[in-house]
Amino acid sequence: MEIHKRISELNHIEDVEDLKDELTDRYGTLDVDLILYMYEKLYKKLAYKFGVQKTMVGAYTTTLMLSQEASQQLNGQSLFRKASAFDPKIDLKYERRHIYLTMNTQKTKAHWLYLFAKFLDEYFQEKVES
Fold first, then answer.
1. 2-129: which CATH number, 3.90.1150.50, 3.40.50.740, 3.30.365.10, 1.10.220.30?
2. pLDDT tier at 27 (50, 70, 90 boundaries)?
3. CA-CA distance, 86 to 16, in Å (whole number)?
4. What does the mean pLDDT of the chain come to?
5. What is the pTM of this model?
6. Cα(47)–Cα(42) distance, integer angstroms
7. For 78-81, which contacts have Cβ atoms below 8 Å and span 24 or more sequence positions?
8. Three-state DSSP state, 24
9. Which end of the chain is more exposed for a tag (fewer CB within 10 A), N or C?
10. What is the rounded distance in angstroms from the CA atom of residue 41 to the CA atom of residue 45?
11. Which stretches of the chain are assigned E, i.e. beta strand?
């Protein structure tokens, strides 16, 4: 029960890494499903904050569709700069008043949950620092 509470309190990628280290020290090697669960919880929290209305996961790409409201309120230049600099690169599209962020995950070993959680976390961190 304590682990679920700690997972629900994750707010940044660093929090996940710290909790993974702590749990590994305490229990040994962690199950991949537990690690994905931590990233999923963080992703859902950050995606909600970002205004993600829908997440579409394909074999080689993952696309986030932002709500119309979030699409109108985001700083497009900042988002474009961050998406272009991220590895793997994130393609942006604006269609029917929604912004779509598409990441090609074919050539990376990292799970899309980790990658998009990292992207969103970095986006919000940069926003705070500005």
1. 3.90.1150.50
2. very high
3. 20
4. 94
5. 0.92
6. 8
7. 78/123, 78/126, 78/127, 78/130, 79/123
8. helix
9. N
10. 6
11. 52-57, 61-66, 90-95, 98-104
Polymer length in residues for the chain: 130
Q: Which two tokens stand for residue 11?
A: 């707010």
* pLDDT at residue 126, as a whole number: 81
Instruction: Report in angstroms the alpha-carbon separations of 72 from 25, 68, 76, 114, 123.
Output: 45, 6, 9, 26, 17
Place of tokens 């919880």: 41
Phi/psi of residue 24, each to 5°? -65, -40
The residue type of 11 is: N
pLDDT of residue 125: 87
The domain ranges of the chain are 2-129
Using pLDDT thresholds of 50, 70 and 90, give the confidence band for residue 106: very high
